Every structure is written in structure tokens, then in C-alpha cells.
Amino acid sequence: MSDTSDVHKLTGAYAVDAVDELERARFEQHLAECEDCRAEVAELRETAALLAEDTAVAPPAALRESVLAGISQVRPLPPEVRAPAPRATHEHRAGRRAWMPFLVAAALAVLVGIGALIVQPWAGEDDVKRLTAAEQVLQADDAQEVFLDLGEAGRATVTRSKSHDRAVISTEDMVAAPDGKDYELWLMSPDGAFTSAGLMPDEADQTLVLDGSAADAAAVGITVEPDGGSKQPTSDPIALFDLTEAA
Amino acid sequence: MDHVRPVPDGAPQGAPSAGDAPDLAALLHRAGLGDEAAFAAFYDATSARAYGLALRVVRNPAHAEEVTQEAYLDAWRSSTRYDPERGSAAGWLLTIVHRKAVDRVRSVEAATTRDQTWNRESAPTEHDQTSEEAHASLDAQRVRNAVSTLTDVQRQAVELTYFGGYTHTEVATLLDVPLGTAKTRIRDGLIRLRDLMGVAS
């Protein structure tokens, strides 16, 4: 669909945030491997920022106070430590660290929040036969599966078991969420209301149990949300798994 | 008492930056070490550009304030991640502001018109800008001169994306051109501005 020269042309649109979330995620994958595009994006961002010289407006004085009050309550992040990025399924990606400090930070934050959710390190030590929560759903007699191919963004399967009242998502080759963003999972009720089912860590391949009761869900959705997630979706889903038609 | 040496009035010795503005990169560096006064100085030197950009994109002053505040909080938090080798401190900050402003415009729309096709009230004429607020600095004049050399289509594409917050796909539809064309115009326009304004990495 798009040849290589086409990919490079997205530098301008990317530099001015004129891309949708999926494009952003894909292009950031490309940037991790393309030195030329990284350099061009940096220059074009710098250029675009100069356009703001002509729109300067003094902010209300109260804003200064709010900002200064805000920062006094937060510690600056620790400096970047030169560790490999958390997703290392394919080849070694030397360029990744240099490019996406926010992404790495986001991924680490998410892993801390969610890591304990499924795989308890001690589970199975006592009882090797015990199935993880994910396995119970995946192996349930009433498991329903919906597979979605997200193109260059990867593939994902949602499995729901009504008897276990849980849903599980498994991803393959999923691109990392865009810079400063997280993937958030949602359970959609038959009347179209979305309930957050947790964040997805930035892992290309993973199996994750969704938070919340899934027996009555009509669909599972994934949206791209600001770091840390949202209470309600702030954008349209990048993937929607329709469970009403699942076998 | 020893001899007293007069302090020269001229430029301080070893000033790291040749610019006239406060050395923003140095202020950010100090902010990363927890220096709130340095960050306040950074704010004072950049807030008109940050707020003006946010206001231009989101249009609503209350939203613009929120966006600006969030951006500064992010800048404070990630001040240790700023790398002067990769660009100016002002550019870095404004990149954060712009991203947040665009996210705000889009999420407000997603919340209010989730099911509708996008369709903004304000028609995308490129002359609806708030020039009364334009700040008449030399840099601003330089930017205006550079922008005036763009072709109409390049200028439209750059303004609709940077100030309008539209995606290149939306711009293609707005300007009724093929997808690849909008993408190329945005890039060509920015490259031309880059060359005229002497931005180099």
C-alpha cells in the first residue's frame, strides 16, 4: 500500500502532530530505525515552533501561580538510564532509546501498575496444575474468540468466557503506543457505555486479563489515551472486538 | 583588606549562550535538579509563546490555560530528559504544548461529536487569524516574511495542520487533494521555512 519513500514523507505531518494515533504509532516504529527521518523531524519541529513567535499572547497572571504551585508538588523524573527499551521481541533496536524517552518512561510506569495483575510470581509454585486467570478463560468451554488484524499495527485476539465472567486479550507484534500515550482497554455494554478495563503495557506480544465483569459485554475496545489512561474514551477506538457475533 | 577588583560591566565571562534571551537550556537543566526559581524564569521567558500557541489551536481561553499548565507540568517533570543536542529548549517546550493542544481539540470533538463526521464550524479560511495579538518581535517579523514566501497551498497545508490541528488526511479532504499531496505540501512547506529561517540540526 505505501512504499518506503512514502513513509519518509510523513516527517512533516508527524512534526506538526497532523497524524492520527495509529499513524503516529507506526511512524514512531519507523523513526526508531531511520536516522534521516529522526533528524528531519527534529528540524521540522524546531521550524514549526518558530511559527509560535507570531502568535504570542501573554497568559493571565494566575496561570503562572498555578504552574508554580503545580511543580512544587512533583519531582522531576530521574534522568534517562541507558537501559534497553522494554520491547525487544525482534532485533536489537539501537535507535529506540535515543528517540523516545517518554515512551520508555510511560512503559515503565505502566508495567509497575499492571505487572501484578495476571502473573503472580508465586502462582503455580504450590500447585503446578493451577491455571492462571488467563488460561481459565482461554480454555473455558464457552470461550468466544474475536480476532482482529490491525495491519501494520499488529494483531490481537479477544477471548471472553461468560461462565468465568472475564475477557482476555492476546496481542502479537503490536506496535508500542505513541509517545506519551497508553493503550486503554474498554468493555462496552450492549447500550454502548464504555467501562475502563485497564491499560495495556507496551509489550508487542502479551496476554492480559481485562479488569471488570465481562459476561454481559457486547464488545471490547482499545483506545489510545493520554499517559495513565482516562475514565472515558477520549478518542475513537483503534480496534473494536464485537462479541455479539462471536461463536 | 586585599585589593578590590572592579567587575567589568560587559558580558559575563564564559556566558554559555550567544543568544540575547536567558539561556533556556541552562534554566531547564537547573529545573531538572529541582530548582523552581529557574523554572519560573523559564516560564517567564516562554509563557507568551506557549499560551499564545495553545490559544491559537484550542481557541477557548480556559482550555488554553489548562493545556499550557499541563504542558509546563510535563516540561518540569521531564526537564531531565531534555537534550540540548537535539534542539532548542523553546522548541522542545512548544512541541509539548502543541501536542497537548491538538490532543485537546481532538478529544473535545470526540466527546461532543463522536458519531458525526468531522465538520468544524469555523471554515478553514487562512485569514481568520488573531493578528491583533501577534507579538511584534523581530523573530515574529522574520517568521512572517518566511511564511509569505510559501505558495498558497503550502501555507494552507501548514496552517491548517499546525494552527488548525487537522490531520493531513483531513487537510487532504478540506483542500480536495489526494492524500499523498497534502502530506507532501506540509513537508515541502516546512522544509522551505526551515531553509529560510536557517534551522539546522
Automatic annotation (TrEMBL), chain A:
The chain crosses the membrane at residues 102-123. GO terms for cellular component: plasma membrane. One of its GO terms (biological process) is regulation of translation. Residues 103-238 form the Anti-sigma K factor RskA C-terminal domain. Residues 27-54 form a coiled coil. It is a single-pass membrane protein. Residues 225-247 are annotated as: Disordered. One of its GO terms (molecular function) is sigma factor antagonist activity. Its main location: membrane. It is found in: Cell membrane; Membrane. Pfam families: RskA_C (PF10099), zf-HC2 (PF13490). The keyword Chloroplast does not apply. Residues 6-38 form the Putative zinc-finger domain. Keywords: Cell membrane, Coiled coil, Membrane, Transcription, Transcription regulation, Transmembrane, Transmembrane helix. This is Regulator of SigK. It comes from Nocardioides cavernae. The lineage of its organism: Bacteria, Bacillati, Actinomycetota, Actinomycetes, Propionibacteriales.
From TrEMBL, chain B:
Residues 43-107 form the RNA polymerase sigma-70 region domain. Keywords: Sigma factor, Transcription, Transcription regulation. Belongs to the sigma-70 factor family. ECF subfamily. One of its GO terms (biological process) is DNA-templated transcription initiation. Residues 141-193 form the RNA polymerase sigma factor 70 region 4 type domain. This is RNA polymerase sigma-70 factor (ECF subfamily). InterPro entries: RNA_pol_sigma-70-like (IPR039425), RNA_pol_sigma-70_dom (IPR014284), RNA_pol_sigma70_r2 (IPR007627), RNA_pol_sigma70_r4_t2 (IPR013249), RNA_pol_sigma_r2 (IPR013325), RNA_pol_sigma_r3/r4-like (IPR013324), WH-like_DNA-bd_sf (IPR036388). Residues 1-21, 108-139 are annotated as: Disordered. Residues 113-122 have a biased composition (Polar residues). It comes from the Bacteria. GO terms for molecular function: DNA binding; sigma factor activity. Residues 123-136 have a biased composition (Basic and acidic residues).
